[in-house]
Specification:
about 375 residues, mainly alpha, 14 helices
Length: about 375
Amino acid sequence: MMSTTTITPNQDFGPQKKILYIDNIKVLLTILVVLHHTVIAYSSSKGWYYNEKTPLMGARIPMTMFVSINQSFFMGYFFMLAAYFTSSSYSRKGAAKFIKDRLIRLGIPLLFYSFILSPFLSYLVYNFRKQQISYFEYLSKFDSWIDLGVTWFVAALLLFTLIYSLIKKIFNLSLKKSLKAPQAITILLFAVLLGIISFFVRIIFPVGWVLEPVGFQLGHFPQYIALFIVGLLAAKNNWFDQLSEKTEKILKRSIWFCLLFFLVFFVIKFKLNTPSSWFSGGLHWQALLYAVWEQWIGISILTTLLIKGKKNWNISSKILSQLCRSSFCVYIFHPLVIIGFTLAIRNWNIDPAIKLLVIAPLIVLSSFIVGSLIVLMPGIKKIF
């Protein structure tokens, strides 16, 4: 998932000067990624390398809300911000250099994670939970070498940028007429339309269905593709600077409405005895309702963060710069930190929800320490 940005590796800045608030938003998103996977480790029985599911419903409800709200915007946000700097980078470097740069900065982390880090992570869990054997003995039986894990995002971003380069090279598309930044009503209508499209896609590819071996959850890809396109348009038309405070106020109310509406899903599930899978996909009205809600709150959050960031977060410091510098590395290596901590306290006889509260801050801090140390290694700058 660099120069001084996070998960969009070594992106070049479209505007004349560096947009510091975007760097700071990316750091926030990276923290959310770490917390997201930590929460999954203690709130679900699947979806992560090592899981301890809490039986406390009072803990699982806020955990579910956190994971659902995160999923509604944070990865799509990364795609949009990546696209925001793609066009200027392509124009300055040219097609050949641009593609070579992306293959190095995205391809190497993909190969490293799949062939080195992922097998080691799987070995750690196997060794502590099932049978203690040597690492090389485990590798001799290992049959999941193409396991992109969290780097599915890197693979998807590489795919999107290569498609962009191909289209740009063949058709040389260029918008002559500038487009005004969308107002709040347009943004919300876009979210509703995106939710409806997501619903239809999820009839075939429900949330949780994974395209192996690349790890793509196609049920979320309508948003990823749409926001990548939005990022390209935003850079071309300078949308980020044009978003108004009026839009922010309306979308803030929209977020609060969606947060309260989330309780409706619990009523539908427990009062109507609705299977959880009906929210994830298929021809169910619950799936349509959830898909629209997800896009509504997600698009509202990411737009509000942009406007708020532009006003209040366009600053930097030595610490923030270091966090930005190490963020992509944090994204690649944070599974190792999470697994290390969760395995270390696996025998602590206390509810998993309490474990989460104790170690989550330590995991975030340790992830950035590990990332900061790795980027200091010789030769790493060419990748991270």
